[in-house]
Structures
1.
Amino acid sequence: MNQMVSMIPITAVALPFLIGIAIFFTGKNKKLMGFLSSIAALLSLALVSALYSMLVRGNMDVCCPICFGAGFTFCFRVDWLGLFFAGITSLLWVASIPYSIKYMEMKFPDSRARFFGFFTLSAATAIGVTMAGNMLTLFALYELLTIFTYPLVVHAETPAALKAGKKYLVYLLIGEMFLLFAVLSTPEFAGPRAFAKIGLISSEIGSKMLLVLFCSYIVGFGIKAAIFPFSNWLPTVSIAPTPVTGLLHAVAVVNVGVYGIMRVILNVFGIELVRSMGVGVLLVFISGATIIYGSLMALRQDDLKRRLAFSTVDYISYPILGLALLSPTALVGGLLLLVTHAFLKLSLFFCAGAIDIQTGKTKVSELSGIGRRLPFVSTCFAIGSLGLIGMPLTLGFVGKWYLWQGPMETGQPSAMGVLIAGAILCAFYLLYVVYVLFFKQSNVDFVCDLQLNWTMLFPIGAGVLMGLVFGIFPKGLLLLVNNVTMCYFGG
Amino acid sequence: MSFVLHLPVLMVAVPIAVAVLISVLLTFKRNIAFVLSVLTMIFCLISSLFLMVKVITEGSFVYYVSDWPPPWGIEIFIDRLSVYMLLLIAIVGLISIIYSELYIKKVLDHQKIPFYYMLVLFLIGSIVGFVISGDIFNMFIFFEILSLSSYSLVAISGDREALRAGFRYLVMGIVSSLFILLGLGFIYSVTGTLNFTQIALRVKELSDLTVIQTGALLLIVAFIIEAAIFPLHVWLPKAHGKAPAPVSALLSGLVIGIGVFGMIKVVYYILPGVYPVSFVVFFRGLISVGIILGAIFALFENDLKILLAQSSISQIGFAAIGVFFFSYSGLMGSMLQLLNHAFAKSALFLGAGAVIYKTGFRNLDEMKGIGKRMPITMGFFAIGLASIASIPMTCGFVSKYYLCLAAIKQGLWGSVGAILLGGFLSLLYCLRIISCIFFEKPDSKVEVKEAPLKMLLPLGVLAFLTIFFGVFPRAAFVLIEPGVKEILGFLR
Amino acid sequence: MLKASFSNLIYVVSMILFLIGFYAVAMRPSLIKKIIGINIMETAIFLFLIGIGNKKGGASPLVVEGIEKYVNPFPQAMVLMALVVGVGTTALALILAVRLFECENGEKR
């Protein structure tokens, strides 16, 4: 692979970051604030697409090391895996901006400068994590992401929000403690272009130490990806404003966790070493447990956002499962499901937010009859749910098609069982909401006091539409995903 | 550039001379004390910048006061690390003095103001003397002056709590300086000299190290008291919590850091390589406990300034633990942590002082939601907290990164655990403060405005420096990287 | 053991004094007794330092014809300096104690 030194990766992180800082000083000037937020999102999307075209043209990895002194090197580098995640985040970031501006105006008119400042900073750091070139950069941005999302979680400033914020931080910071240990124990963690290599760790350091490091990494990244014993923070933070729950806690933050686990297995350890250590099964077990746990908990939730958050817990484990099966087909499936989840779950969360704004209803049991009042939102919700379940003609179907081949290839029937159970449970907890929306008779009459305008409806529609379009024409996306897997599985 | 050679002595002499001058002038022209102190500190800052250029280009040098070589004369030993410390002292000193003007007028009687500046200058002069002196006895003398002015500064407000805190500090401090005297007696009895380099040479020829080890132990314990490491930290929370804010900034930012620098002097300059493993393990254990306990105390404290003081115990533990790693990364981490603590903790104390100046609030409960009324002051305060909590892009992250790296490289899992857990707990107490001052709803409606510019500016400079050295730690590496390599060379 | 103690009498005495002083500082609640304890500790250390410089049969360190053996003057100079510092510290300690006493008993000057 050719190497090319370019400033674009760092610009794609630093420019939105600086704009985010500038937003804090806009104060009462709402127009400027909205303008700067959109500019930041658009800029990052433009730069990410520029990087994409560079990768497509020369298959180069673009990197930009900044040495701060002995053993303290920051490096930004873009390869297919990173670009894949950066692309999802930046695309959805742009899509969610109009919705967020409108939503915040209606729901939380106070201290919006702080909200959009931290929102931009979080999204920029989330993109930065995926462009990190070595473990040190990755860790630094990863921790910054946690810190920057905290003010967003507690934005409502109610005691419940503060409590949720505390829980959020304690969970994630404990994870980061493990992660820091693992990162610093990895040789070459700060080397420039460390991620250009496969296998930063050699098996020479002893099998016990290898296992300790592997577990620390999985705990460190896994807490952010909400894997089973550590998944409770995610539903708790659904108390945050909907754009945060939607973009950050269903897309950016959890994706960063998944990205971390992928980096660890694909780059730090390497497929071969993971295979010889036999820890793939461990990861299959963990992600399977997460899928079952998330689905079962989602079934029991009455609060719509909490239900969706548990559904995130469930769904975000599919890519991890796909990775853990250590087969290229399953990984392709996992990555496709990640895209599905990002688009559709964002739409679902935005639907929930729109329903909340329109009618003030947040509980599933109260939603009866809303389908007729809010046809567009409800239809989008239904299509999104079907997409997540994996109906044909949606991207979810394509993803599951590939993912389900994984257990057959590698001969792990238990994983197959988990997939089937997960799909059934997923259908139950999402379709029940759709059922309530459309078919349950409402006995309470309510008033729609606000008219939603296109700024809020557009992102919802766009997300669902993209899920459908990619489901019908999956070829372009498959090409990208194949590029990612080819780097690590060859052929 | 030969005048640069005389600058270290002048950096001691000028503040002390000005202090004496102020105490003579004090019957009339009270305002002149402030102006004179600021000018003195600017002189110190410029001199240390000159010294920095000198040591970067030509390396460390030795200076004999009035050309008398040791063992008769006083030797001054300037290397990169001491210049680094001098820079920290000059910057934090200057900033604290500028900040003092308004604050001190509010909290102290008018007659005491010149005395305050006098004591601060004595403190600065003696710290400089402590850092540059090349023999233990001078170290002892400067340590005594330093301690005397610190006790007086803690107790200067004259209220009961402050006097008590000052007296307790005084008792512990005197014991600590007597330990130094005893320790240097032990060392002198076997080596016959008090000069650093000569002691280091003689020690190599000795066959029985018991006496030297006793001496070293006494010296280290003395500095442990001064640096407020775990079992001997009891004086610190009240002393730093009850002193006026700029004094707390100086004491917490510089003086306890000087305790750690004293340890570095003992362990690397004076008596390198005489420590049995059990010593080192014992001290590392103590410091680890201190790191965690200090952070836990801070987690449950309500008085903001005492909370910050408790956090100092934990933070200075980070700096001290690196001394006992005997490795490049460990010492780098130590020195960076001294810088982090000097800037960030001073910024925090000055920020807490700004709140006290404006509202009189001392407890965290009263400060709910104050971040919205004083966004700029509290913004700088938050940057200081971020650095204490070792968030990336602040210098706290760089220092803890090096410390943790050093511990992992040597396989010291206990220390690794202590550093990680300590960092985690620091994050928790910092976030507790942040959530309190920014996100909680205030109980009372009090009209508060932003702190005056003369207080904001020093705070801003400190916050800027914390971020600057976090993003460009290379700026600090210029001095400490070769400096650390040089003193590690003494071990061999 | 006993003989060794006798030959090093000065060190033994200074250690005992040091411990007595330390006991007073650490254990006695009275501020004045603490200050006295500090002074006893100081004296003990001075004794120790003088003891280090002492030589059996040495003359005082003044250059006089015909005397070869001098006591080491260096520790004595150190003790002199430390004495000065000690007086200063004691003075400060006493001032603080007096002010504290005044404060606690509600007396104002």
2.
Amino acid sequence: MSREKEVVKRKRMKKSGYDYAFIVFNTIFMFLFVVITLYPVINTVAISFNDGTDAVRGGIYLWPRMFSTKNYVTVLGKQNIKTAAVITVLRTVIGSILALATNALLAFVVSRKKFLFKSGVSLFWVITMYVNGGLVPVLLLYKDLHLTNSFWVYVIPGMISAFNMLVMRTYMQGIPDSLEESAQLDGAGYFTIFWKIISPLCLPVYATVTLFVAVYQWNSWFDVMLYNRMKAEYSTLQYELVKLLSSVMQQGGNANNINTTVGSGNVTPVTVRSAATVVTMLPIICLYPFLQRYFVSGLTIGGVKE
Amino acid sequence: MSQSNDATVKSRAGFRRKKQKVEEYKVPITKAEVKKQSFLIITAAIFLVYGFVFYYLPLGGWIMAFQKYKPKTGLLHSQFVGLDKFKFLFSDKTFIRVVWNTLGMGTLNLIATFIMAIVFAILLNEVRQNVLKKPIQTISYLPHFLSWVIVTGILHDALSANGIVNDIIRFFGGTPIVFFGETKYFWPIVCFANVWKETGWNAIIYLAAITSIDPCLYEAASIDGAGRWAKIKNITLPGIRPTIMILLLMNIGNVINAGFEVQYLLGNDLIKSVSDTIDIYVLTWGISQSDFSLGTAAGIFKSVVSIVLIVVANYIAKKTGEERLF
């Protein structure tokens, strides 16, 4: 310990003018970075707790000026938001489970060194990362498969993604073959090997992929607009936000339209949208700090070079 | 369209695959081996059917681009018109403009997000106090997890007449700017939005690369009297150079993908001429106006450009002796 301290001390003594300038610059940079990243989020929370008509005047920064919870009462009281929240949770949970199960199984198959059609099957999936049919053919296909105007269009089409599968495969390839071989000697079939031996060792990468899929599912809105525009019962929180955003933009967000109100009481599109935004981002903001090591490792499995 | 944001990371895994191909060995196909692997083969086959339906079947729809497609007559009986739709596309001024917008914004985003991620990773690495470093890094990921809907909403608030940006301009005695009313502000706004959202996330990979640099190099440099700046320039930057090159190469193919959600959500009639991208063109013509053939043709154009960009990037990498994707 004392030696380390000494080194630190020596380093301090050595600091040149340039180094001080650098530290000052770096501190300012990091400070600005944090402020610019956090400010908009805090500002949204502040507006969401502010009285609607008062908020139109602007000038609310970090703290509400006229405190009010009416925006939340309005948002949480709306039937369409409630339905959307249920659908969002359902698509996140079902989508993640389906994606995890299928990607893991496929990754297991292509990561077996002895699998006869390994390279062919891998190539088949890698190609899907680079070539896709495009918006129109895909829409027509989903129509033919009766996936449009249904819940399943959210979870079935994107279920297996070559990227997630390859991340899992890379991880599985790192597990020693001897485990598989000894299990085979004991008479275990491939499914048993997958379920009892490989999967328990792959929990970290499973968590990573589940996280990627869950975030994607939670944040999607384009598929709602494209495939389920006519079906209000399959709308999601993000799509409700899109609608609220466009109502705010039409209103122009300026003080001339002070009388435009939605619902009753002192709420305006701006404040209602802020409240809905907070409701939508809250679960993610609360969860992601605890999942850091999973996505960091997932990205580095994906391709950092040693 | 789905998960187009993940495209950068997608290719990373693809890259890794190639590197490990070396150690493969072949098992001869025999009856006994097929029987033994029946579980693997059946599972792979089921997923092959799935993949064929959802990823390969839509490619068959490309025929529509060469037809005067009508839903009534379907793919098989619609009248073939050859390259008419493509001729129309390339003579359509709107299309030329959306291609220009897509490539312009894509390039701008690529350069800006790239530089910012590298700068942020290097500077964060120079923050010596872990008490500060960890929270800053956690905060830096936050925007990545927010949807584009939320990000555009937040941006719209900040740039509105009563938003913080105009407040600051007023404070310094300037005249407020109508950001979404003039064409010249749109590209920088989109660029900023991308930088804001992805800097911390993209920096993850560079930070990982920096950690793998041998600490001895820094110690040796310190002994030789190198300052922080000298160490960054002569050790850190060369150390992460391969990572930078690989990621740059992989992202070049994405230049043509870089733009749908922000442009769609923030665009309005006043700034349409700079905000519309190829995807929005496809959406307007292919879906809203139901000209499926034209929409498909524009989609094909995009796919082809994307593949050409990847191949060219790969070729350049080969010539310059950098790591390649294939």
